[in-house]
Each structure stands twice: as structure tokens, then as C-alpha cells.
Amino acid sequence: MKIAIQGEAGSFSHQAARQMVPGCQIVPCARSVEVFDRVEKGSVPAAIIPIENSLAGSVAEHFDLLFRRDVFIQREFRLRIIHNLMASPGVKLRNIRKALSHPVALEQCRDFFRQNPSIEPIPFYDTAGSVKHVLERKLTDSAGIAGAQAATVYGAEILKAGIEDDKRNFTRFFLICRQRKILPEANKTSIVFGVKNVAGALFKALSVFALREITLSKIESRPVKGKPWEYVFYLDFLRGQDEAAANALRHLAEIAEPLKVLGIYRAAK
């Protein structure tokens, strides 16, 4: 099964894909838009996208694409994020003067850079891409910061493992497909909706869940592209395809515009 990911082979998305769909064939994409294009056009049956990090927060671009594109969330997965400093075989830690990685990864390794002031953090477009860059150019004074999968893919040596500041660092991933398919034991729903800018509108929208004792696990607002100062709300609630959830969504549809169900799936443990 082909699975599209944003970024290079060896990235955390690659690692998540391997665990979610064992034996899958990874299709790396340079941009997130390309990932969604491939799913919509059917050149791949599914894609794995990061949607939220426990430290850095939501991936805003992916929320926006889920809203605009004709895709459906089928599964959710949480991956423990472990950052590793890796370089070309034979290079020693004492030789490293630059560490390349995605800006979010660098931000999550502040303590490492404080303890190693001779190593300069260098922002790069991708975690695994930084390792690929260092290995391809045979750099002896530079290293990449990425997940262990990158070392396997590119033949790098891990100089120091687990350099992230917070060991409770997780990223939530979605498996998205073009078909609206709900797997057995689905117990979580993601939606996006908008309300008029009038007093009490959001309260009324959220009350459809409170009245039915449905637990909300996340709510976040995002600006509507092309409509300054207008917003939509992304919301997760802990119910699957049952009568209470269906009634809540029907009730919400009476007061919300737009309303889109992004996926009904089993919550990650």
C-alpha cells in the first residue's frame, strides 16, 4: 500500500506510517499540498499527516487543508518524538560545529545547545532532510537532528540519542483517505464549523454537545482564508457514529454554517 507523507524518507511521518501501516510503500512529498493532491486524485490510497504536537501545538496548514479538501480521517496515532544528533560514519561529536534540523525540532532541543555552545543550530526544511543533506555532501563538521528512522534510511551514525528537552513529547498523526470509511470501534469525531458573529452563537453551538453529555477533547479557532476576521472552529469530541452524536450534529447544522465532519475514528491510546 502506498502512503504519501510530507517530507523526506526517514522523517517522523515515515516512522508513524510504518507503525500505522506495516509494510507500506512511502511516497515522500515536498509540500503538504502535494500530499493532499495525491490522495484526492487517487495516485495514493492514503496519507499520513502530523496534526498536533504536544509541545509545539497544532499544524495549522494541515487543519486548513482538511477543511478545504475532499478527504476523510480514518485513523489516529500518537508517536513519541525522540530527537537524535546524527552524522556521517566516523565523525565524532567533538568535530561537530553545526546542527541542522527543522526549526520546531531545534526549539525542542534548547538544553542540548546550552550544554554544547560550540554547536550552532541551523534551521533546515525537514528533520530527515537535514540528515540526508549532511550525508550526501559528506560534511564532517555538521550533523542533523532527526528520528532514528533517518539513521537507518541514510546510513548515518547517532552521536547522541534523546537530546529533546521534554521526554513527554508526542505528535498526533492522522491517516487520511479519499473514501468516507468508518472503522469498527470508532469512538472519536473531528469536525469544523462556523457560526455567525452574534452574541451567544458559540455557546449555542457547544451546548448541542453539553445537552447530550458528549465530552469535547479539543477546540481551536482558525481564520477563514480570504475572509478577514472571520473564523471557523475545529472541534474533537469523544463519540463515534451513535445516536447521540448524530443528533448533536443535526442540531449543530441548524445553527452552524459551514459544518463539515472531518473524520470518525478510534481515538489513539
Query: What is the C-alpha radius of gyration, as a whole number of Å?
Result: 21 Å
Low-confidence stretches: none
Span between termini: 24 Å
> Beta-sheet strand percentage?
25-35%
Largest sheet: 6 strands, mixed
Question: What average pLDDT do the residues reach?
Answer: 96
The amount of helix comes to 25-40%
One letter per element, helices H and strands E, the order comes to EHEHEEHEEEHHEHEHEEEHEEHE
Strands, total number: 15
Shape by Cα distribution: elongated
What is the count of helical runs? 9
User: Which structural category do the helix and sheet elements fall into?
Assistant: alpha/beta
Question: Can you characterise this structure?
Answer:
This protein has 9 helices and 15 strands. It has helices spanning 12-20, 32-41, 60-68, 103-107, 110-115, 127-136, 148-154, 201-210, 243-253, and strands spanning 2-6, 25-29, 46-53, 57-58, 72-80, 84-87, 98-101, 120-123, 142-146, 157-160, 170-177, 188-193, 216-223, 231-237, 259-265. The strands form 3 sheets. Strands 1, 2, 3, 4, 5 and 11 form a 6-stranded mixed beta sheet that branches. Strands 8-7-9-6-10 form a 5-stranded mixed beta sheet. Strand 1 (2-6), helix 1 (12-20) and strand 2 (25-29) form a beta-alpha-beta unit. The radius of gyration is 21 Å and the shape is elongated.
